[in-house]
Amino acid sequence: xxxxxxxxxxxxxxxxxxxxxxxxxxxxxxxxxxxxxxxxxxxxxxxxxxxxxxxxxxxxxxxxxxxxxxxxxxxxxxxxxxxxxxxxxxxxxxxxxxxxxxxxxxxxxxxxxxxxxxxxxxxxxxxxxxxxxxxxxxxxxxxxxxxxxxxxxxxxxxxxxxxxxxxxxxxxxxxxxxxxxxxxxxxxxxxxxxxxxxxxxxxxxxxxxxxxxxxxxxxxxxxxxxxxxxxxxxxxxxxxxxxxxxxxxxxxxxxxxxxxxxxxxxxxxxxxxxxxxxxxxxxxxxxxxxxxxxxxxxxxxxxxxxxxxxxxxxxxxxxxxxxxxxxxxxxxxxxxxxxxxxxxxxxxxxxxxxxxxxxxxxxxxxxxxxxxxxxxxxxxxxxxxxxxxxxxxxxxxxxxxxxxxxxxxxxxxxxxxxxxxxxxxxxxxxxxxxxxxxxxxxxxxxxxxxxxxxxxxxxxxxxxxxxxxxxxxxxxxxxxxxxxxxxxxxxxxxxxxxxxxxxxxxxxxxxxxxxxxxxxxxxxxxxxxxxxxxxxxxxxxxxxxxxxxxxxxxxxxxxxxxxxxxxxxxxxx
Length: 573
Description:
By secondary structure, this protein is an alpha/beta fold. It has three domains: 87 residues, no CATH class; 129 residues, 2-Layer Sandwich (Beta-Lactamase); 234 residues, Rossmann fold (3-Layer(aba) Sandwich). The strands form four sheets. Strands 1-5-6-7-2-3-4 form a seven-stranded antiparallel β-sheet. Strands 10-9-11-12-8-13-18 form a seven-stranded mixed β-sheet, sandwiched between helices. Strand 16 and strand 17 form a beta hairpin. Helix 2 packs parallel to helix 4.
């Protein structure tokens, strides 16, 4: 009996296939998977009218050869591996045959490619979530956030901080100037410029290039003037950024303005004009008096374009033919025909374009630029007849605006013959309504403000601080700057026959003094003090605006007042 057991064991050991539950299951799974894939390939061949019969015979032949190898090779797993290679080889052959005859978008792709794309998308989504801001390029596409291993991540984060830090303190503009020593940075908050720490040349210039690329500008063009825009989105919302690139021999500079368009659409009765000034300008709306030239002026960066659009929008665009000629279209007033100046056949300068406008019979014209020779003369000829022409003149004072106009025309008599009015604006900061501190003015202060003796009034001084329980903290509205926004202060000189005669004789002082004496024209500093009486601004702000050009004795007293805290400094780039 033991001999029979030994003989049986030896026979089983020599058998080609030992009985095992794993082997038949593996065999069945292999051929089931093969037939399923072959069925899909056959349907694919039918869809694209590829030869089906030949491939089906090939699939069957491969299956038979694979089965023979598994059965007759003594080592099961060796035969199985060879069979798998043959079966996979037939499907690979069909793949190559098929892709060679179909367009690129119809070819097979490995499942691994989809997986890789999915993984890349997940990594990009994680990077986007980690970023504090998302940029939308000028063409509307999203700027991908560099991943941790990407060397450009540092530049992305630098630009991100350059945009978000000014936005957090309500900056309206940032400026970047590239020099050999580095890139200087500054920002404007409520009209006050604050300098930031300069950036190293390599980091700063790379940041400038990225901003230009986002705005759709030519990164390699460092000399030509270029304008573009892009959008930044953060937890605080979205802002549209307008980018102006200017090159020079010393390096390129960049100006970025935040939500520029939103600052232009202001009604004329909301920009700070006094009631008497509004009433004076309202006379120009009468069709019978809608003639002449009105000089509209403000210092550079003091809201001249906004003022021009506000005055023009006062006219009824549906009953009047209103046209503008501008260097760049930055805002559109409803019903007004805006035109950007561009040289064209027969019209190669700004003055010629203005002359062409008169042929279209306008009622009101806004000329945004008289810097080119001939532009002011064209406006003068228009103003002598029916159209009312508003001319924008950047100037530090009303006197400087009139002098600039006369010089541009070239002849004082011609320049003043058509003048109807001169409007000059300067911007002044408004006190933060959340933290301004009330006080009773001293007698000297009350006298300067025109407050009758004995009348009790309440004025306000800048604070920038609030009390939270027992703690004194920075005001969350103004971030401790004590001011929030700006408002205009104005002088409005209505030019009559006598004033016109004085101006023609270069006697601006006489015309100005006569207007103050006879028509009670509000002077610029008087307009600022009216804003103090109304609680909109402070004596300290009036002093800041006028002190550089006033004698020390003209500074208003500020008994018990504290100086306004400086605006917050920008974050380091």
